[in-house]
TrEMBL record:
<protein>
    <recommendedName>
        <fullName>GAL3A protein</fullName>
    </recommendedName>
</protein>
<dbReference type="InterPro" id="IPR029062">
    <property type="entry name" value="Class_I_gatase-like"/>
</dbReference>
Length: 224
């Protein structure tokens, strides 16, 4: 029997929900590792809806669980029903939904509030000493909840390749240790069983992002 891994989504679309390529990469790599993905999302409204052609917010309203179901091909559960006892690991892909729908990081940065459901799930896996995989912007959730943990969101010096590098500095202000890593690399916090990789925090070819996520998934399954 393969490992059972919870994958938490936050909508469908990079600017207002879950990064679709990252989510797909996680599911593909879990399948390759012989693991069983169980997909969850909170049953809440999105912070807003963004027109992905214009890059501008619209007046439309969408539900995070309903939108996430598009990625999960309908096979998804309400995050409120997640029971850590029957699961071996947790993975949270990236996308602005992490900072908008799972937390208020997008508007409040290090002073953000994390959704109670999301915080409870992260703390439950951590307390059970079960591995947690985080990529792209999602390591900020761990930075906020687990002071002193070790994480990567890529590099901490902003440039064309690393346009979101200031995130690393903000995470350091929360008391965590940021470790610079290339997009195809991962960082493992052995003590906290946290596995992180930068994914689309880096302006890199999509295959490199896919490969980095693959290493993260492989290590999460190994630790489970």
């Amino acid at each position: 029997m393969g490992k059972r891994v919870a994958v938490v989504l936050a909508g469908c679309g990079v600017y207002d929900g879950r990064e679709i390529h990252e989510s797909s990469a996680v599911l593909v790599h879990l399948s390759r590792e012989g693991a069983q993905a169980e997909v969850y999302a909170p049953d809440v409204d999105q912070m807003h809806v963004v027109d992905h052609v214009k890059g501008q917010p619209t007046q439309e309203k969408r539900n995070v669980l309903v939108e996430s179901a598009r990625i999960a091909r309908g096979n998804i559960k309400d995050l409120a029903k997640l029971d850590v006892k029957g699961l071996d690991a947790l993975i949270i892909p990236g996308g602005f939904g992490v900072a908008k729908n799972l937390s208020t990081w997008a508007t409040q940065g290090k002073n953000c509030i994390i959704s109670k459901e999301v915080e409870d799930v992260l703390k439950a896996f951590h307390a059970a000493k079960k591995p947690i995989g985080l990529c792209c912007i999602s390591p900020v959730l761990a930075a906020k909840i687990f002071p002193g943990c070790e994480l990567t969101v890529g590099h901490d010096t902003e440039c064309e390749k690393w346009p979101y590098a200031k995130t690393a500095e903000t995470m350091k202000e929360l008391g965590c240790k940021h470790v610079n890593k290339h997009v195809t690399e991962i960082h493992v916090d052995v003590k906290n069983k946290l596995v992180t990789t930068s994914a689309f925090m880096c302006n890199a070819p999509i295959h490199e992002i896919y490969d980095g996520i693959g290493k993260m998934v492989k290590e999460v399954v190994r630790l489970a």
